[in-house]
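User: Fold this; tokens only.

Assistant: Input:
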Amino acid sequence: MSTEAMTEHAGPSASDYIVHHLTHWQNKPQTEIVDFSVFNIDSLFFSIALGLLGSFFLWKAASRATAGVPGRFQAAVEILMEMVDGQAKSIVHNATSRKLVAPLALTVFVWIFLMNAMDLLPLDLLPKIWEGIYGSMGHDPHHAYLRVVPTADLSITMGLSVSVLFICLFYNMKIKGLGGWAHELVSAPFGTSKNPIFAIILGVVNVAEQLISFTAKTVSHGMRLFGNMYAGELVFMLIALLGGSWAFSAEPGSLMLLLLHVVAGWAWAVFHIIIILLQAFVFMMLTLVYIGQSHDAH
């Protein structure tokens, strides 16, 4: 058998497999130069689809809500709503703001949970289906890229965190007024100084501190979710490679790879359920904390 035939029979290497699964379906090829006109179509598609799906579930629960004994679905949604509402009351003390903030926190939790849960699907299921569709359209199926976990895409998680930043800025101006917020920026925490030089210095320091604070909160908010989900996705790929090594191996001892693939995949999936829930909860709680801080006066 020739070397080319053996390579083709052996399939792609581990690095090729991982690189293929980490490549996004984009509207045009990515270059080394930063280009904001490049979009990850797969991340946008799945995040929007799952957002609509989550909204549909919540709407369905609200439309079927009864005053009598609730069904399992209604009871689960009510428990979730009570949990979110309780957290919102303990953090955001403005009752008027909570009318928007509490539903927002609920939506954030459900949406991120659904996006995270895409990591539990078989790794090659949707990409293989997409390869078949892509190939049927006359294209090379090896160039059919698809990533199905939107929260493993930094552009999605940072988009969510920047949205939270804008909401915080909105409440800072709404609750304190534009003038009151501006006065707080240049006077906290010592109050307004009668010395104009000291007042200017204090104002510059406060503005710089606020810029650093908002930037750090926004970056850490998005990076935390991305880092955990990206790492989880990589672990699933490594576990999948164990099964691939077994499939392309002719040695009897390779059955251990299959056993390890099944056991490790099951164990990581069970553990990953906790990560999925925890990351959705943490992102929701930080959203409430940051919005709550925008209501506080210094």
